[in-house]
Amino acid sequence: MTRSHHRTAAQIRPVKITRRYIKHADGSVLIECGDTKVICTASISEQIPPFLKGQGQGWLTAEYGMLPGSTHSRMQREAAKGKQTGRTMEIQRLIGRALRAAVDLKKLGERTIQIDCDVIQADGGTRTASITGAFVALHDAIQKLLDQKLIEATPIIDHVAAISVGIFEGTPVLDLDYVEDSACDTDMNVVMTGRLHLIEVQGTAEGNAFSRAELNTMLDMAQQGIEELIAIQRNVLTQP
Amino acid sequence: MTRSHHRTAAQIRPVKITRRYIKHADGSVLIECGDTKVICTASISEQIPPFLKGQGQGWLTAEYGMLPGSTHSRMQREAAKGKQTGRTMEIQRLIGRALRAAVDLKKLGERTIQIDCDVIQADGGTRTASITGAFVALHDAIQKLLDQKLIEATPIIDHVAAISVGIFEGTPVLDLDYVEDSACDTDMNVVMTGRLHLIEVQGTAEGNAFSRAELNTMLDMAQQGIEELIAIQRNVLTQP
Amino acid sequence: MTRSHHRTAAQIRPVKITRRYIKHADGSVLIECGDTKVICTASISEQIPPFLKGQGQGWLTAEYGMLPGSTHSRMQREAAKGKQTGRTMEIQRLIGRALRAAVDLKKLGERTIQIDCDVIQADGGTRTASITGAFVALHDAIQKLLDQKLIEATPIIDHVAAISVGIFEGTPVLDLDYVEDSACDTDMNVVMTGRLHLIEVQGTAEGNAFSRAELNTMLDMAQQGIEELIAIQRNVLTQP
Amino acid sequence: MTRSHHRTAAQIRPVKITRRYIKHADGSVLIECGDTKVICTASISEQIPPFLKGQGQGWLTAEYGMLPGSTHSRMQREAAKGKQTGRTMEIQRLIGRALRAAVDLKKLGERTIQIDCDVIQADGGTRTASITGAFVALHDAIQKLLDQKLIEATPIIDHVAAISVGIFEGTPVLDLDYVEDSACDTDMNVVMTGRLHLIEVQGTAEGNAFSRAELNTMLDMAQQGIEELIAIQRNVLTQP
Amino acid sequence: MTRSHHRTAAQIRPVKITRRYIKHADGSVLIECGDTKVICTASISEQIPPFLKGQGQGWLTAEYGMLPGSTHSRMQREAAKGKQTGRTMEIQRLIGRALRAAVDLKKLGERTIQIDCDVIQADGGTRTASITGAFVALHDAIQKLLDQKLIEATPIIDHVAAISVGIFEGTPVLDLDYVEDSACDTDMNVVMTGRLHLIEVQGTAEGNAFSRAELNTMLDMAQQGIEELIAIQRNVLTQP
Amino acid sequence: MTRSHHRTAAQIRPVKITRRYIKHADGSVLIECGDTKVICTASISEQIPPFLKGQGQGWLTAEYGMLPGSTHSRMQREAAKGKQTGRTMEIQRLIGRALRAAVDLKKLGERTIQIDCDVIQADGGTRTASITGAFVALHDAIQKLLDQKLIEATPIIDHVAAISVGIFEGTPVLDLDYVEDSACDTDMNVVMTGRLHLIEVQGTAEGNAFSRAELNTMLDMAQQGIEELIAIQRNVLTQP
C-alpha cells in the first residue's frame, strides 16, 4: 500500500497551523493537514441564545462550510441552494459539541463564541482538521478576553483534537485522505482531550461491519495520532 | 438508582413490535420500547435516484420525524417551520446507513425502498427504536417483492438492531429513557448485525470525557441489549 | 352499490375514540373512522400570538399533517420538501376555525391551545375525523386547566363534530371513504355544533355542478351523521 | 343599516369589466366591484403538468396575489417573505377549481391555461371578483385559440361567476365590502354556473353558528347576485 | 430606424402620471411610460428597522415586483417560487437608494416610508419608470404627514427621476422600449436630481464595450430626458 | 488625508495574484488587494443551462460569497440563513456580466465555466478584486481546455479588470479600503477591457449627488488604476 506523503499506515499527514490568519476575527487559523486546508475563526459576541438567558453561563456554537471550488468536482454552493445539506449540519454539530467539551461555559460569562470552519481545499478529514484547528482559534479568542480583562481565568479545561481512522482494504490506517476515505470499509472519527479521554467516537461501517478487535486497533491508532496533534497545538501556542 | 420499568442498569425496556400496523405501506410496524413509540414504514418504488442510474443496483433511504405532540413539551412542526433540524437530518442519515448495511443493494434490483420512522410518543431512544423497528418493516416489504416474484432471492444479509447506552451518575446504564438521557454524562448509540459485528458506534461525552475502559463497558452492555432485540425481531418474524 | 363496512348510503363508518393516547400532551385521542386513523393532541401554552396581546383573551390554532406512509401510495414528507401544500394549509385553517367556534376565547384567558392532527392511516374523511377527534382532545386539555384551577368555568360553548357527504354515481352518500371520495361528483364537508347549527359548509362540484335540491339532501344526511358523532363524543366523555 | 354605494341588503356593488387590459396576456380584464379592483389574466402554454402527460386533456390552474399597497394597512409582500400565506393558497385553489368547472379539459387539448388574479385595490370580495373576472379573461384566451384554429370547438361549458353573502348584525346581506366582511357573523362564498347550478359553497360562521333557514336565505340572495353578474359577463362579451 | 410612438433617437415615450390611484396607500400613482405601466405606492409606518433605533432618523425602503401576466411571455410568480430573483433584488435596492437620496431622513422623524413598485404591464424601462413614479407617491405620502402636522417641514430635498439610455445598432437612443432593450449593445440607467446632479449611473455593455465618448453622449441624452420627466412631475404636483 | 499603505489619492493598493491556489479547480487564484483577499476559482462543466440548449454556444456564470469571519464584525452565514442577500446577488451578477464580456461564448463550445469568488478577508473593493482575480482563473481554465485540445482557439477576447473609485471628504480617491468606502459620498465601480473600453460603470451617490465633472475625474482615475491592474495580470500570466 502506497499512501500520500510517503506515510505508513499509522502515520498522520504533515500538519501546519498558521495563527492570526484573518485579521478581523478574534481568533483565526489556517490549518493544513496534507492537502486539506481549513480556515477556522472564533468570533466573540456579547450575547447569548434565548434558552440560556439568566443562567450565568456562556455558549459556544459552530458552523461549517466548503468553498464550491474546494472539492474534486465543484460542489453546489449551499447559500445559492438555500439550504445546508445533512452532512454539513452533522459536521457543524460535531464541531460544536467537541469544542464545548473543552470549555467551562460558566467561566466564559454571558457571551457566545462562534466558531466558523470553512474548507478552502478538501482532501479528506475536513471535520477532524476543523476541530483541531478551531481549538487554536478558540484559544486565541479567549486569550483576547483575558487580555481585555473581560474574564479573569481561562475557561479552557483541556486541549481538544480529532483524527480519522479507517479500515482500507483490510488494513487499519490513520488519517485517511480523500481517495482512502472514498474506498474504505470503515470510517471512524475520534475526538480526544489532552488527557487522552474520549469526547466523541463516530465509527461507521461503509462496506463490511467491523469487529470489536478492529474497533480497538483503530482506537489505539487514533490515540497515537491525537497525541501528535496535541503536541503540534501546544507547540504553535508557545509562540507569542 | 431506580429505573423506569423496575430495571437494573443492564436491562432494556419492555419491547413490543406490531407488524402490519399501517395498511397501505409495503411493510409497517409499531415498535414500542417502554414509552417510546415509533411507526416505521417501508415503501417500495420502482425508481432509483439519478446518481445510481444504470448501475444495476437499488437504493434504500430513510426519513425521520416526530409528531409535535410526541415530546414532553410540544415541539414545533418541521413542515410548518419549513425545514428539518440538524438533529432530524443526523438521525435520518444514521437510520439510512444502518439499514443499507443490512441489504445487498445489487440483489434489490433497480428500485428504492423508502423507510419512514415517525415518533408518536418520545421517551428516549427514538433513533435506536427506529432502526430496530424499521428492520422488521423492511423485511416485510422485501417479502412482498419475493411473493410477487419481482426478486428471486432476498437481498437481506443480516439482522440489524440498535440500542443506546450511557454513563449516568457514574454508572453505565443500558437503554436510557428521556430522564436518564437528559442527565447522563456520556451517551452512545450502537448499531450491530445479527452476527454481532458493529455497523455504527456513536459515543458523545455530554459532560465529562470518557475513558477507553468506560467505552468497553458500554459496548459490552450494548451487545447484550442488541442480542435481546434481535431475538425479539426473530420471534416476531416467525409469525406469518 | 356496495359500501365499505356493509353500510347503506346514509350510514357512517364505525367510529372509535381512544382518550389519553399520547402521554405528554395535555389532551390527546386516537380517532378511528373506519380505516382512517388520526392522532389529535391539544397542547396548552401560556403565551398568545402578538396580535392578541393585551386583549384579555386566548387563542386556539391547529396544524395538520399526514405521515408519508399513511396514504395509498407514499406521499412526500412536507418537512423534507420544506413547505406545506395548499391542501394542508386549507385543512388546518378549517380545523382551527371549527374548534374556535366551540370555545369562548375570553373565558380561556391569555393562553393558547395548539391542536395537532396527524393522520397515521388515511382512507377518506381525514379532515372531518380530525375535527371530531380534536374536540375530545380539546375537552381534556381544558379539563386539565379546570383541575389545576387555572380557569374557573369551562370556555367550551358546545360540542363540534364534522362529517363528509357527497354525490357518488348520482346517489347522495354519507361519510365517503377514499375510493368514493376519489370518484364522487360532489364532495361536501359539514361542521355542526351540538345544537345542530352550522359552523362550516364546504361543498365542491368535482365533476357536475349540483342543484339546491341535492345540496339540501346532502345537508340532511350530514346532520344525521353529526348527531351520531356527537352522541359518540358525549359517551366517550362520560368515562372518567 | 347604511351600505356603501347606497345599496339595499340584497344589492350588489356596481361592477365594471374592462377587457384586453394588459396587452401581452392571451386574455386579460380589469374587474371593478365597487372599490375592489382585480387584474385577471389568462396565459396559454403548450405544456401540461407531468401527472396529465399522455391523457389527451388539458389543464387550468390559478394563482392569486395582492399588491402590498392594495389593503387598508400595507400587507407584507409574499415574494419577499418567501412564501404564500394559507389564505392565498386557499383562494387560488378555489379560483382554479371554479374555472375548471367551466371548461371541458378534454376539448382544450394538451395545453395549460394559467389564470392570474392580482388585487390592486382591496375592499372585500376579492376572491369572488377574481372568479367573475377571470371567466371573461379565460373566454378571451380561448377565443384566441379558436381564432388561431388550434382548437375547433370551444371547451367552455357554461359561464361561472361568484359572489359573497353574509349575515351582518342579524341581517343577510349580499356582496359584502371590507367593513361588513370584517364585522359579519357568517361569511359565505358561492360559485354558480350560467344554468344556476352550484359549483362551490363555502360558508363559515365567524361568530355565531347559523341555521339551515339562514343558509337558505343566503343562497337565495347569492343566486340573485350571480344572475346579475352573469348578465354583465354576457353583455361585455357581446362587444367585439 | 423606426421607434415606437414615432420617436426620434433622443425622444422619451409619452408619460402619464395618475395620482391617488390606490385609495388605501398614503401616496400612490399609476405611471405610464409608453406601454410600460407601474403602480407605485408609498406607505408610512411609525416604526424603524432595528439598526436605526435611537438615532433620531427615519428610513425609506423599496420593493419591486412584476405581475406574472405583465411580460411578453408570462413570468413565474416570485411568491409561488418562494424567492425573489437577483434582478428583482437589484432593482428594488436601486429604487430605495435613489429615493433615499431625495429625502433628509433626519427630518422624516423615527418612521419608515415603504415604497412598492408593481409593474402591471412591461415594455422596457420598468425600473426607471418606478423611480420617476415613486417620487410622486413619496411626495404625496409626505404631504399627508405635513397635513397631519406629524412633521413640520418637508424632508424632501429635491426631485428625483430616472431614464434609460442605450446604444442600439450603433446609435445612442433614449428611453428604450422592450424590443430595443433586448437588442441593444449598451444599456444605461441614469438617476438625477432636479438640480441635474447624478445619483446613480449604471451602464452595462451587453455586447460591445463602450468608449468614454459614447458614455458622454448617453449621459447628455439622459440629462435631457430627465429634465423632461422632472417637468412632468412638477406639473402633476401643481394639481391639488 | 492619510491613506492605508501610504498611498496618494490616485494610487491603488499593493496587488498580489497567486495562481493555482486550489488544486482541484480548473483555474484558481488568490488575489490580495491590500488587506482584501479573495479566492477565485473557475470550474468547467460539460453542460449548459436549458435556455442555451442547441444554440452552439457556451455559458459563463459567477457566484460570490464572504466567509462569516472575513468582515469587521462577523456576518451571518448565508447558507445557514437559507438565502443570499440582495448585495450578494447584485455582486455575483456583476462579476458574471463582466467576465462574459471577456469571452466569445460561441468559441467556448457547449460548456459552462462557473466562476466562484469567495472573500476570505474583506477590506473594501471585494467585488472589483473578484473580477480582476477571476479573469486570471478564467484564463487558466481556458488554457486547460486548449491543452486538452477540447477547443482550438482561445475564446478570450480581451483582458478584464475592475477598480473602485470614490469621492471621500470632497476628494476623488482610487481603490477605497473599508474605512474610506464606509464614509465616502460617492462610490463607483468601473470595469474595463485591456483596450480600455468600458464594460460596466456603476456610480452611486451615498451622501451628496455628484456632478458630471466629478464623474469624469473619477473615470480618469479608474482608467489609470485599471491600466496598472491589467499590467499585473499580464505579468502574472507570462509565468508558466
TrEMBL record, chains A, B, C, D, E, F:
InterPro entries: ExoRNase_PH_dom1, ExoRNase_PH_dom2, ExoRNase_PH_dom2_sf, PNPase/RNase_PH_dom_sf, Ribosomal_Su5_D2-typ_SF, RNase_PH, RNase_PH_bac-type, RNase_PH_CS. Residues 11-141, 160-225 form the Exoribonuclease phosphorolytic domain. Keywords: Nucleotidyltransferase, RNA-binding, rRNA processing, Transferase, tRNA processing, tRNA-binding. GO terms for molecular function: 3'-5'-RNA exonuclease activity; tRNA binding; tRNA nucleotidyltransferase activity. One of its GO terms (biological process) is rRNA catabolic process. Its EC number is 2.7.7.56. It catalyses: tRNA(n+1) + phosphate = tRNA(n) + a ribonucleoside 5'-diphosphate. It is an enzyme of class 2 (transferase). Gene3D superfamilies: GHMP Kinase, N-terminal domain. Phosphate binds at residues 87, 125-127. NCBIfam families: RNasePH. Homohexameric ring arranged as a trimer of dimers. HAMAP family: RNase_PH. Phosphorolytic 3'-5' exoribonuclease that plays an important role in tRNA 3'-end maturation. Removes nucleotide residues following the 3'-CCA terminus of tRNAs; can also add nucleotides to the ends of RNA molecules by using nucleoside diphosphates as substrates, but this may not be physiologically important. Probably plays a role in initiation of 16S rRNA degradation (leading to ribosome degradation) during starvation. Belongs to the RNase PH family. This is Ribonuclease PH. It comes from Nitrosomonas oligotropha. The lineage of its organism: Bacteria, Pseudomonadati, Pseudomonadota, Betaproteobacteria, Nitrosomonadales. The gene is rph.
